[in-house]
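Customer escalation, tier 2.

The customer says the design service returned an amino acid string that "doesn't look like it belongs to this structure." They asked us to rerun it and document both sides in this ticket. The original structure tokens are below, unchanged.
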């Protein structure tokens, strides 16, 4: 621990103060930037709010979900809010740290073993499979200060100086547009205050972790206010790699800087310009072989399947491992993002504001992945190798994917209120250019038949041929409008909202390489070799209707119908690069937002049901060319994305309860039941033995537990010159599938021969204790010293499981317990 502190003080702090570290989370600006008028920082229902809560009730929470600052309780949308204190109490360094279930309907997970690219689902909708591609999109929109982040890569960058994170549940197609069929995550950062402020934090913990944050507000000068932010967050690997000189698994190093200038030359006009840059280096998770393959006996209609032989080195690890079985090359995948944002606000009338949000962002991400090295220590028992000898058998599949993206967006808004009508109108132009490539090589090779001795192969990724490459330009234009009318009835208790958005998407590009070769496309009986072009476009209209009723000052009801969609595209793992159509959600929701007991208690509930159509599903298998009407088998594989037939169903219930029974004590509880039913879908590829399954197969709900709950206790006790603060939270989920089809079917009877394993349920506790607001003499500074822990009980569960009868069951475990100390100074 002392060595970590010395490293931080001697190496990190000077870099931060010199302003040369390369940054944290992209695109920060003022509260306006999230498409709202200037709003105060959100007050969260935590211990800080509870200090005033016993006498005056729970603190007000301000959200910007409808393009203007509003009280959460009077906003007729299902929204969960995490404030700055909530993130601090959970020691959340990035969005990935919210994957333990802080918001039960929100699920965040790494894309397979790669924490640099995130899968984000709300209410079971968002990502079903691989969105980690240029021509594919996620179904939950991520926004920072009104700027849409177009790629899954880069979302693992560090969070810093966040005012609040708003999780909008259900389709948000009218106000937020494309790729928000599941919902939207709206991140609002703190804007320059124009007053001199310093907020600095240093800390250290186990696994060699340390962090440092500095946020400086400068006094207003010549109508200019300046804010500077810097962050460093580091943690060593959780699973040791036995190979000397190679990185350990599940480590991260996040750094970032951000600067913002707010100019207010007149009372009715402001302009803010911000720049951010981030550096995020992460190593992959470690995939464990939980149980070996057992094979399948022959049946009357299906052949026997032999299991793979295991190497004698012993790869099976049925519990969470702290050391990998073998040493393999491993290095961090590195992401660099840069962004510039210009926001303009012009109050042309007392109740009408015109806004402009202009943004340009770049992303470069390398993804080195050797996390699945150990399961490859299996030799297939085939007729070509009946003895299963491991001599010369290569394993440890090392994958490198390089990803580049440039995006530009321009949004114009008119937000205001005229008599009994509130309105928000706008138009958006968005364009991104994306390219990726991938290459793989097996880095280790066995030297004996039993699979004991092994050596490193002579490999060089710089000279390794590409396995896959593609590029795409996406252009999207849209226009929207929404208005809320309050008729002169029942003391203005009724509010009717209607809106809609028109969007046109176009994707142009090509699949350049697939499976290590130029694509082959049969055309009129002849194989045409070369890039396969993509040129497709789609148009959508997404309406919304909402009826809200104020039953009293503290009780509000609403009913909402809305739609949203996820863009169409093409799969760069497909040999044919077939296009698929947009995926859509239409949802009806009813909800109640209530406060009682003199506003010491708050209960918000929502229930929803919806239709899920044209669902984008991936199927993989052997590729077969069709030449002159004859099917010709190949050894190459392909993954095609198809739109599922029929209509799926969504339904669920959500509840959030907050209670401040006495001064300083706040209790919260939240619950979600999310159900997704996807129509049975036909697999277009032959299965084991080259046999087609001619009937549709069941599809599982993935990356979403059916049941999830979260609760927390926050307690604050004033002392003599200090304040004691305690936080404790628990998060439960019932487990989820990571793959949506069973592995092996009987080709005739359609009976499942090997079921897809489901991830285990989890219960994770986090805690924080702090001595806060210690007066530092006459300096005006306040010191806070805290200890924290994530996964306090060191609970372990496999959140990701996959398997087959030949290879066995593999999976990823949740993180080990982490803990540390922090010191914070504010002045």
């Amino acid at each position: 621990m002392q060595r970590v502190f010395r490293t931080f003080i001697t190496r990190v702090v000077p870099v931060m103060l010199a302003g040369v570290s390369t940054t944290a989370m992209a695109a920060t600006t003022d509260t306006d930037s999230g498409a709202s008028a200037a709003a105060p920082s959100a007050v969260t229902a935590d211990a800080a709010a509870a200090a005033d809560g016993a006498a005056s009730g729970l603190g007000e929470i301000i959200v910007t979900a409808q393009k203007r600052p509003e009280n959460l309780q009077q906003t007729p949308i299902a929204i969960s809010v995490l404030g700055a204190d909530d993130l601090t109490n959970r020691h959340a360094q990035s969005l990935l740290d919210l994957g333990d279930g802080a918001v039960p309907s929100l699920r965040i997970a790494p894309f397979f073993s790669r924490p640099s690219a995130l899968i984000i689902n709300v209410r079971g909708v968002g990502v079903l499979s691989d969105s980690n591609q240029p021509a594919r999109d996620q179904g939950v929109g991520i926004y920072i200060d009104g700027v849409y982040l177009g790629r899954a890569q880069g979302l693992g960058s560090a969070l810093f100086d966040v005012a609040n994170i708003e999780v909008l549940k259900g389709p948000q197609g009218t106000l937020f547009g494309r790729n928000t069929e599941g919902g939207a995550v709206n991140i609002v950062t703190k804007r320059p205050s124009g007053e001199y402020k310093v907020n600095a934090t240093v800390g250290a913990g186990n696994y060699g972790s340390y962090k440092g944050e500095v946020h400086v507000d400068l006094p207003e000068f010549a109508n200019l206010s300046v804010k500077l932010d810097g962050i460093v967050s580091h943690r060593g690997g959780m699973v040791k790699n036995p190979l000397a000189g190679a990185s350990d698994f599940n480590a991260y190093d996040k750094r970032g800087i951000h600067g913002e200038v707010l100019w207010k030359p007149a009372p009715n006009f402001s302009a803010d310009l911000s720049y951010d840059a981030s550096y995020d280096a992460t190593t992959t998770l470690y995939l464990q072989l939980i149980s070996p393959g057992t094979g399948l006996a022959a049946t009357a209609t299906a052949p026997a399947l032999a299991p793979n032989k295991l190497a004698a080195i012993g790869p099976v690890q049925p519990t969470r491992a702290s050391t990998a079985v073998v040493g393999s090359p491993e290095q961090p995948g590195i992401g660099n993002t840069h962004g510039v944002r210009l926001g303009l606000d012009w109050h042309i009338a007392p109740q009408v504001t015109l806004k402009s949000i202009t943004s340009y962002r770049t992303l470069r991400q390398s993804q080195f992945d050797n996390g699945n090295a150990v399961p490859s220590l299996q030799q297939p028992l085939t007729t070509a190798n009946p003895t299963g000898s491991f001599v010369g058998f290569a394993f440890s599949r090392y994958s490198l994917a390089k990803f580049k993206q440039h995006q530009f967006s321009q949004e114009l808004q008119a937000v205001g209120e005229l008599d009994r009508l509130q309105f928000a109108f706008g138009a958006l132009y968005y364009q991104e250019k994306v390219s990726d490539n991938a290459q793989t090589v097996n880095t280790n090779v066995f030297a004996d038949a039993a699979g004991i001795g092994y050596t490193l192969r002579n490999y060089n990724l710089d000279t390794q041929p590409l396995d896959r490459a593609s590029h795409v330009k996406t252009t999207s234009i849209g226009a929207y409008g929404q208005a809320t009318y309050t008729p002169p009835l029942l003391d203005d208790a009724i509010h009717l909202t209607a809106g809609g958005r028109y969007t046109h998407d176009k994707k142009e590009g090509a699949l350049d390489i697939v499976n290590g070769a130029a694509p082959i496309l049969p055309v009129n009986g002849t194989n045409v070799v070369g890039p396969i072009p993509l040129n497709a476009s789609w148009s959508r209209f997404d309406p919304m209707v909402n009826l809200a009723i104020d039953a009293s000052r503290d009780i509000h009801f609403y009913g909402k119908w809305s739609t949203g969609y996820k863009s169409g595209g093409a799969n760069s793992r497909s040999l044919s690069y077939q296009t698929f159509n947009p995926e859509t959600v239409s949802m009806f929701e009813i909800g109640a937002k209530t406060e009682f007991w003199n506003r010491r208690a708050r209960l918000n509930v929502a229930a929803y049901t919806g239709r899920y159509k044209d669902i984008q599903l991936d199927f993989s298998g052997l590729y077969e060319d069709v030449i002159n009407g004859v099917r010709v088998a190949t050894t190459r594989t392909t993954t095609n994305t198809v739109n599922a037939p029929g209509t799926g169903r969504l339904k669920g219930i959500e509840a959030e309860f907050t209670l401040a029974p006495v001064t300083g004590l706040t209790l919260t509880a939240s619950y979600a039941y999310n159900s997704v039913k996807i129509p049975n879908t036909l697999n277009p590829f032959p299965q084991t033995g080259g046999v087609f399954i001619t009937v549709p197969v069941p599809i599982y709900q993935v990356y979403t537990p059916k049941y999830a709950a979260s609760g927390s206790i926050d307690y604050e006790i004033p002392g003599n010159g200090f304040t004691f603060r305690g936080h404790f939270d628990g998060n439960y989920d019932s487990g989820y599938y990571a793959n949506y089809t069973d592995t092996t079917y009987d080709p005739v009877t359609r009976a499942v021969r090997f079921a897809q394993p489901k991830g285990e349920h989890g219960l994770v506790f986090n805690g924080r204790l702090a001595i806060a607001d210690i007066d530092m003499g006459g300096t005006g500074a306040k010191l806070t010293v805290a200890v924290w822990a994530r996964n306090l009980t060191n609970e372990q569960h496999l959140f990701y499981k996959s398997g087959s009868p030949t290879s066995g069951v593999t999976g990823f475990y949740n993180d080990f317990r982490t803990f540390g100390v922090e010191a914070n100074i504010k002045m």
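Tier 2 assessment: The sequence is consistent with the input. The chain has a mean pLDDT of 89. The chain has one domain: 2-826. Sent an explanation to the customer and offered a walkthrough call.
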